[in-house]
Amino acid sequence: MNNTEQMYLDFHAHILPGVDHGSSSLETSLQQLEAAREAEIGTIVATSHFYPHLHQVEEFLSLRDRRFQLLEPHLADYGITVLKGAEVQLCIGLDKMQNLEKLCIEGTDLLLLEIPDMPMTAEMFETIERIHKRMRVLIAHVNRYPKKTVQKLLDRKYMLQLNAEAFTPLLLEQNIRQILESGLVYALGSDVHGSGKRAYRSLKKAIRRLGVQNDVIQQRMKGLLQ
Questions:
Q1: Any residues with CB less than 8 A from the CB of 192 and at least 6 apart, and which?
Q2: 13 - beta bridge partners?
Q3: What is the model's pTM?
Q4: Number of folded domains that form the chain
Q5: What confidence score (pLDDT) does residue 1 get?
Q6: Tens digit of pLDDT for each residue in 132-147?
Q7: Is 188 within 8 Å of 10 (Cβ atoms)?
Q8: Domain residue limits at 170
Q9: Are 134 and 110 spatial neighbours (Cβ–Cβ below 8 Å)?
Q10: Does 2 map to a domain?
């Protein structure tokens, strides 16, 4: 593969240096880019963590832009495009946050939304639905959530993102098969932290195991960015 049109997308990555715990330095981010290149990744969506109880939108965006500027001069060396986004943690009332739309993946109206590590309530699902009326919603790393939560997400037919780690077992767990068979998987991600070697090996393995399904998901990811 010799150009980004033929290469794969990584829709969930913590690659910007010093924004969250994904990469502590430019050196680490460059290691991630090297691992991504070896996995034939042409486009990475940088989804730094955004926690509503810790962050203000404008301050987050300012820091993200500064850190992206550190990385940007090196991207051509790896032949990789990096798009700025965020992994926004859901909380009750998030739909009322001012400038929430600025956390969408750049150039889109798509918000990557992370379910918090707590039981989901009716009010939390109502918050997602109110956000969904304003912008498109993609649920991050759905493979990590309890089966009851996953089923409710499937019932509501939200677009879903799977992490590469979901494909590391020799046999896919039943709930992962159910998620794939739902037709609601719109994106794959490495969720890379640290040097990236393990994450991108897992992503390449996931792409290989998905086979024809990967072609469909890759096209869906391209569609999400248009």
A1: 10, 13, 14, 15, 22, 32, 35, 36, 199, 200
A2: 46, 192
A3: 0.94
A4: 1
A5: 38
A6: 999 999 999 999 999 9
A7: yes
A8: 8-224
A9: no
A10: no
Could you read off the pLDDT of 17-39 as tens digits, one per residue?
999 999 999 999 999 999 999 99
Query: Is 1 part of any domain?
Result: no
CATH of the domain at 126: 3.20.20.140
Q: Report yes or no on 99 lying in a domain.
A: yes
Six token digits for residue 37: 């290149």
**Rounded to the nearest 5 degrees, what angle is found at the Cα of 16, between the Cα atoms of 80 and 104?**
85
Helix (H), strand (E), coil (C) string for the chain: CCCCCCCEEEEEECCCCCCCCCCCCHHHHHHHHHHHHHCCEEEEEEEEEECCCCCCHHHHHHHHHHHHHHHHHHHHHHCCEEEEEEEEECCCCHHHCCCHHHHCCCCCCEEEEECCCCCCCHHHHHHHHHHHCCCEEEECCHHHCCHHHHHHHHHCCCEEEEEHHHHCCCCCCHHHHHHHHCCCEEEEECCECCCCHHHHHHHHHHHHHHCHHHHHHHHHHHHHCC
Dihedrals φ, ψ of 87, to 5°? -105, 105
Quote the CA–CA distance of 70 and 48 in Å, as a whole number: 15
Phi-psi region of 13 (alpha: psi -120 to 50; beta: other; left: phi over 0): beta
Instruction: Give pLDDT, residue 2.
Output: 40
